[in-house]
Amino acid sequence: MAKELLKGNHAFAEAAIRAGVEAFYGYPITPSSEFLEYMSSRLPSLGRAFVQAESEVSAINMVYGAACAGKRAMTASSSPGISLMMEGISYIAGTEVPAVVVNVMRGGPGLGNIAPSQGDYYQMIKGGGHGDYFPIVLAPARVQEAIDSIELAFDLAEKYRSIVHVIVDGNMGQMMEPAELPPMKEISKEVPDWAVTGAKGREPNTLTSIYLAPEDEEVTNLRLLKRWKEIEKNEVLYQEYQLDDAEILVIGFGTAGRVASSAIREAREEGIKAGLLRPITLAPFPQERLIELTKQVRRILVVEMNSGMMLDDVMKIVKGQVPVEFYGRMGGMTPLPDEILDEIKRVAANKGPGSDDPRDEWIPRLEGRILGEK
Amino acid sequence: MVSTTAEVVYQRPESFTDVHTHYCPGCTHGIAHRLIAEVIDEMGLREKTIGVAPVGCSVFAYKYFKMDFVEAPHGRAPAMATGIKRVLPENTVFTYQGDGDLASIGMAEIMHAAARGENITVIFINNAIYGMTGGQMAPTTLPGMKTTSSPFGRDVELTGHPIRMAEILAIMDGSGYIVRRSLHNAANIRKSKKAIRLAFEAQERGLGFSMVELLSSCPTNWKISVRDSMEFIADKMIPVFPLGDYKVSPSLEGLKV
Ligand SMILES: Cc1ncc(C[n+]2csc(CCOP(=O)(O)OP(=O)(O)O)c2C)c(N)n1
User: Fold this and answer.
1) pLDDT exceeding 70 applies to what percent of chain A?
2) Is the pLDDT of residue A328 over 90?
3) Which of B160, B110, B125 is nearest to B233 (CA)?
4) Do A225 and A248 lie in a common domain?
5) Residues ≥6 apart with Cβ < 8 Å to B44
6) In sequence order, which residues have a C-beta less than 8 Å from that of residue A291 and are 6 or more positions away?
7) Disulfide engineering: A85 pairs with which of A60, A63, B41, B60, CB 3.0-4.6 Å?
8) Which domain-ending residue is among A201, A234, A267?
9) A196 closest CB neighbour out of B59, B68, B82
């Protein structure tokens, strides 16, 4: 099939339809509403389920229900809506049923704004809902990658009976880009043996997240943890750019990673040996690759559209082997390639020791930049 | 020899599992369960029914019904049921919810399921109290009634008034069958069973949202005897929550069950 010019949210939604999503339940919120609107126009004519729910709380529980029925079910929302979904997400994780949640992240906390952000890193990667569970998190950086990651998200969700988050920022949801959609997949007739479909000719199935005896809950927690270890072993995805001879390693995901790659191209032109590691799975994180790279590079620059959340994970893995620096924009601000280029140049020239908290040096630099932009 | 023929007049419904329930003596959850199981048996729905259990004393309802079941987050059963019914429209889907679950934390979910006319059945156990968490005030607690969080009696000036769900849900255009019954004596239990039957009939006929509110007992948290509990329902609860048919789709009228 040929490439067409596609708008992010529409492209993801169509990709989900072609991947065989049988139920979409959602609630409007900018910048993800086009997802819902698109589904409302497509799903009913295909005989699939669509409900605009009364809230995100309700939407995620509808997803939970359809997932228990063994159907490919999903929702899409944006940061404040995702906060409301966290209860249901935890239940989905605790019941071990597959479901896909798309978060088109916006500036926060609170009502924040509708501009692109990566401020939900902690919420999405570290769990967000209550209890011991491990969401799989995909962070595509271009429309094509987002299209591909939707089908992957369903496959992973079903393979591991896990909740899978696909997180993008408002840039991705709204941008138009040439991309190719996969062909329409036939909906699988296979019913998972654990699904509730009516106990016809078999023992009843029950799906619950309650394990009243701590002994039973502990065994469940252990099962989830061991499954997570398998996921860490098998499912890591990342993109590398100009890393072969890199001395300066830039790490960024989603839009920040994409902007960083433009900056790296320019830095190379100026003779700076910079390269990019862009995690596509934020969870599981490309830990082993990062450990390898710490043996190769001289300095690391983490770039994010938040206050340095992935930074903490990078620091934990790098363990002080290489100085780590940070550059972030927050509140819905997207860094420009020039800003990151300035940072790469600065980092390349810096021979000083690393800091325990690279944010300390970044704060005054950001304040300076904000003043300069005024 | 005298020959006798034995006739079975009472036995465990097929839709029931052969276990003891965890309910307190004098609690009517068990009666409500049994009525549902009998109706599902009689209508031959067991193999296509999916139940949605709530958070509350009946969180383990799925242990007692021999059919597919899920267990919803507190108050979210109507949303889960919606999610299921929309992808399995041929199946029978019902929720079983207490008053805290349905009329407090799950108020949005129940109202909108009714407004959408979701073709599901809701069995609503109104015992005027939060049973599972130890007897706190519920949205259905009677004025003046003592609970662990209204220790001096429910003061309506401070805590508001009991919510009458059957009346509210009956005015939603999406509902097809909304009634209130009681479980405090044999005659009312029989009427409750008929209502449950009609609620499931409504679903099977695609008449939209159906709900049976059942006035129920909680001797443990009401802190009175079982006998007094039944009297409490008759004398105190029914005046606040009048029994009756609040909405009956014309298609159900005259149906003999
Ligand atoms: C989100 C959430 N809030 C609170 C609770 C605690 N909780 C469990 S059961 C319950 C009340 C149940 O009362 P009701 O619905 O009337 O049912 P009953 O136990 O009386 O049958 C509450 C508040 C919970 N499990 N989850």
Assistant:
1) 100
2) yes
3) B125
4) no
5) none
6) A317
7) A60
8) A234
9) B68
Residues of B with Cβ-Cβ distance to A58 under 8 angstroms:
76, 79, 82, 108-109, 112
Token code pair at residue B112:
């909108």
Q: Is B256 exposed, middle or buried (0-12, 13-18, 19+ CB in 10 A)?
A: exposed
B145 CB within 6 A, ligand 1 = no
What CATH number does the domain containing A42 carry? 3.40.50.970
Bridge partners of B247? B178
**CA dist., res. A284 & res. A290, Å (int):** 12
Q: Is the CB of B101 under 6 A from ligand 1?
A: yes
Token match 């800091």: residue?
A355
CB contact under 8 A, A58 and B108: yes
Q: Which residues of B touch A (CB under 8 A)?
A: 46-50, 52-53, 59-60, 62-63, 65-73, 76, 79-84, 86-88, 91-92, 108-109, 111-112, 116
Instruction: List C-alpha distances in Å: B91 to A63, A127, A131, A240.
Output: 17, 34, 32, 49
Same domain? For A317 and A336 the reply is yes
Model pLDDT for residues A34-43, shown as the tens digit of each residue: 999 999 999 9
3-class secondary structure per residue, B106-130: CHHHHHHHHHCCCCCEEEEEECCEE
DSSP state of A128: S
Q: Which of A259, A263, A290 has the alpha carbon at shortest distance from A274?
A: A263
Q: With a cut of 70, say whether residue A33 has pLDDT above it.
A: yes
* Domain carrying residue B86: 29-216+225-247
- How far, in Å, CA of A94 to CA of A226, rounded? 14
* pLDDT band of A245, cuts 50, 70, 90: very high
Contacts with A51 from chain B: Cβ below 8 Å: 82-83, 86, 116
Indicate the residue among A207, A234, A261 that finishes a domain: A234
Confidence category of residue A254, pLDDT binned at 50, 70, 90: very high
Any domain includes B67:
yes
Q: For residues A236 and A116, what is the distance between their CA atoms, to the nearest angstrom?
A: 25
Instruction: Write out chain A residues lying below 8 Å of B112, CB-based.
Output: 53-54, 58
Tell whether the model's pLDDT for residue A1 goes beyond 80.
no
**Any ligand 1 atom below 6 A from CB of B55:** yes
Best of B84, B96, B109 to mutate (most A CBs within 10 Å, chain A): B84
Q: Is residue B211 part of a domain?
A: yes
Q: Report the C-alpha gap between A186 and A189 in whole angstroms.
A: 9
Closest CA to A233 of A184, A181, A338, A160: A160
Residue pair A79/A32 in contact by the 8 Å Cβ criterion: no
Count of domains observed in chain B: 1
ipTM higher than the 0.90 cut: yes
Same domain, A63 and A115: yes
Q: Note the pTM of the prediction, 2 decimals.
A: 0.97
How many structural domains comprise chain A?
2
Q: Which domain holds residue A295?
A: 238-373
